[in-house]
Design a protein that fits this description.
Blueprint lengths: L5 E9 L16 H24 L4 E6 L4 E7 L3 H9 L3 E2 L2 E2 L1 E8 L4 H21 L5 H8 L1 H4 L12 H33 L5 H18 L1 H39 L15 H35 L13 H31 L3 H19 L13 H10 L1
Antiparallel strand pairs: 1-3, 1-6, 2-3, 4-5
Helix pairs in contact: 1-2, 6-11, 7-8, 7-10, 7-12, 8-9, 8-10, 9-10, 10-11
């Protein structure tokens, strides 16, 4: 089996040489800003075609913000182009920098020796510079680079502040989703057992009565009924088009790897796997919204034909009840499509951290509880399930 051939470059980043060595670093070197600087250099020097051919395997595998050592991967065919673009990088976030190649090899394991030697040399240099003035915590922090500078898979798992952020995702995100799901389970129970106390149940009864009124005088009300269904179909078409357009945008973001990875303001999991899960969750909600709206269009289209059939000409299997159920099914699928959009709001905020996502779930449940409740209803209150209440309304 033939695999992809890559080249791994161990680079050392030198910051502004004119600054005082005692001052703090003007920027924090991260995978995000290093990747962005190299991509910009490739685009400027080799154009969009060169950038596109290099992005297939190009990736900044690791960056140590303390020792300024980074490991960069590029394909064997494009590594010289990437190397040339790296040497022409002059700044990262408006801070002058210079890249120095320490090692070039064909496997990531071979980069280990060069990276560790550089870390040890920097640690010895730091001890010579500060002497006895080195702070214990600073010395331990740099001394630990023998383990922390290893790319992913070299070091053992250690407890870090980043793990605390991941725990927030494991706690707040399930709590927010459970809150949303629990509310909708309660809403379904209310719709089935007490339909007139919810807006969805009340509207279902009203549509049932409207269908009976339209079909009793079909020649006179036929145009009104068809126009009403046309408006509903247009609304469902708009929501379906919006859902599939947003799904395309999310798919592009997933493929290109764009996102908030490495941003400071995201307090939570910022790993690539976590970002992919977030984008996939949003994509799943949008696709469900698209499917529900398409089914809504299907039932509304059927109902627009059935409603013009006079009741006296109906066959035994084509009654007012059947047409009413068809209209209500179209409305139910419309409501499910809207609920899928509602679920996508907290999932989108999850990209910016689990705290905004959880707060959005709380606000949504609070608002939906007012929207879904029917406080003032002119329809009679019925005991029993929704269908019995609708039939009672038809007999009244």
């Amino acid at each position: 089996m033939v695999g992809f051939k890559n080249r791994y470059m161990v680079m050392e980043v030198f910051l502004d040489a004119n600054r005082d060595s005692d001052k703090a670093d003007p920027i924090i070197i991260t995978q995000y800003n290093v990747t962005r600087a190299i991509n910009d250099s490739i685009l400027v020097n080799f154009g969009e075609c060169g950038l596109g051919s290099s992005l297939g395997s190009f990736q900044v595998k690791y960056v140590n913000p303390i020792t300024k050592v980074c490991v960069i991967r590029a394909s064997r065919e494009e590594h010289q182009k990437v190397w040339s673009a790296i040497t022409m990088v002059r700044s990262i976030v408006n801070c002058p920098v210079i890249f120095n190649l320490l090692d070039l090899s064909g496997s990531i394991r071979a980069c280990k020796t060069a990276a560790l030697k550089c870390d040890e040399a920097k640690f010895e240099q730091y001890k010579l510079m500060v002497g006895d003035r080195v702070m214990p915590e600073r010395g331990l922090k740099i001394k630990g680079t023998e383990e922390t500078t290893k790319p992913q898979g070299w070091q053992k798992r250690r407890y870090t502040p980043a793990m605390e952020r991941k725990y927030l995702d494991l706690v707040l995100v399930p709590m927010g989703l459970a809150l949303m799901l629990g509310y909708h389970v309660w809403l379904c129970y209310r719709i089935v057992k007490h339909p007139t106390k919810t807006l969805i149940g009340t509207n279902s009864i009203s549509r049932w009565i409207w269908v009976r009124t339209m079909m009793e005088d079909s020649p006179r009300n036929g145009i009104l009924a068809v126009q009403t269904f046309r408006n509903n179909i247009m609304a469902s078409t708009l929501m379906a088009s919006t859902a599939i357009m947003l799904s395309s945008v999310i798919s592009v973001l997933m493929v290109t790897g764009s996102g908030v990875e490495g941003r400071v303001f995201v307090y939570g999991d910022t790993s690539k796997l976590g970002l992919s899960i977030k984008f996939f969750s949003i994509l799943a909600c949008l696709l469900v919204a698209f499917l529900m709206n398409v089914l809504s269009i299907r039932y509304y289209s059927h109902a627009s034909i059935l409603i013009n059939v006079p009741p006296k000409d109906n066959k035994p299997n084509l009654t007012i009840d059947y047409v009413g159920r068809t209209v209500n099914r179209g409305s139910y699928f419309w409501s499910l499509g809207l609920r899928a959009f509602y679920f996508s709001f907290p999932l989108f905020l999850w990209v910016f951290g689990p705290i905004p996502m959880f707060l959005c779930c709380l606000v949504l449940v609070f608002l939906l509880s007012f929207i879904d409740e029917s406080f003032d209803c002119a329809v009679r209150s019925y005991e029993g399930d929704e269908e019995e209440g609708m039939k009672t309304a038809l007999r009244a």
